[in-house]
Predict the structure.
Amino acid sequence: MKAKRRVTTAKDVRPGGIQRGPTPRRKQSAGAASSPPAPRPTRAAASPVEAVSFPDRPARTIDVDLSVDLGRGLVLANPILVASGTFGYGIEYGDVVDVDRLGAICCKGTTLKPRIGNITPRVTETPGGMLNSIGLQNPGVDVVIEKYAQTWVGWKTAVIVNVAGDSVADYVEVVRRLEGVPGIAGIELNISCPNVGRGGLQFAIDAGAAGEVTAAVRRVTDLPLLVKLSPNVADVRPIARAIADAGADALTAINTLSGIAVAPSRTRPLLGNIYGGLSGPAVKPVALRIVYEVSQIVDIPVVAIGGVTELADVLDFLAVGAAAVQVGTAIFADPTLPVRLVDELTETCRQRGLATYADLIGTALPKKPGAPSSKGVEYRP
C-alpha cells in the first residue's frame, strides 16, 4: 500500500530547517541527455547566520547562506554531510564533535535482518586510501529504530538512514519500517548490493534494476530519497537517469571502487572476502568525473563523496555540479574535519563577497552536456 502523503504544517518543521512533507519536483524528460546543467540548490526562505571565530581577528557574525534543499522538504543548514559507514550512528562521535553543526549524518548501512559482516581481515590501508570489506555489519532495522531513533529526535542535524538489501522486497520492507519514525529525516539507498533476483549482479550496475528498486521504494515512502551511484560501470549516465526518472530526490556519488590487496606471503588475497571497497583521496578523480557527468544530465541534486580531506576538495566538487558533499574516510583520522569545513566554507564565501555558497556550484560545467568518458575522450593523444 502506498504511504499516505502528509501536508506540511508548522509542526512539521524540525530544528535546523529540516521539513517533512512533499515538495514539487520536476519530471525528468525523455531527452534528459540534452538537458542543461543541474540547477543550483533551492535555498531556505530564511538565511541562516553562521557565527565564526578566527584567531587573527575579533569574532564576528558573517551572514552567509549555506542552506541546501535536497528535495521533498529536506532542507539542511549546510552542505557538509558525513558518509555512511564512517560516522557510525552519530552517537559514537558525540564527545568529540558537535553533531548539530553538521549538515546531515548518513548512518551505517541498515538491512532487514542483523548481519555479522564478512570474515576478517576486513580493512587494510592502501596508497592514498583504504580498502574495506566490512560486509554491512549491523543489528537490523528494528534494533536501529529502537536503539537510536529516539536520540536522533533531539538533534538539529538530519539523520539519513542508509539502506541495503539483497532484493527489491528487502529494500521495500526496511524503508516501510522506517517510514514515519520520528528522528529519521531521509533514506539513502545503497544499491551496490547483489540482486539475488538477477543472478547476484549489483542493482547499481544495471539501469533497469536501479530504476526498479528506486521506484519500488518511492511507492512506499514520502521520506526524501537519495540513491548512491556505483563507480564500477562503463557509463553511469543511463543509470543516473533511470534513478531520477524513478522518483529519487537526489543522487549521491560515489560509492567505493572495487579492489583487492595481496597478503604479505603473496600466496593469497589479503582480505577475507577477497574484494574490498577502495575509498580515500585515491578515488577523488573518479568521483569528480562521475559528479561532472551526472550533474549535466539530471535535474535533481547530486551529493558528492570521494576523497574529501580539505576545503579545496569541497570546492572542486561544487565546481563540477555537486550541491553538497559527504566526508568519509578522512573522518577516521580527524573526526572534527566536517565541522571545520563548515567554518572554512563560510569564511571562503565571505572573503569572495558571496552571500550564498550556491554561487560556487557548477562553475566548471560546460554550457552544453559533453561526451561521456566512456567514449574514450580522455585517452585522445
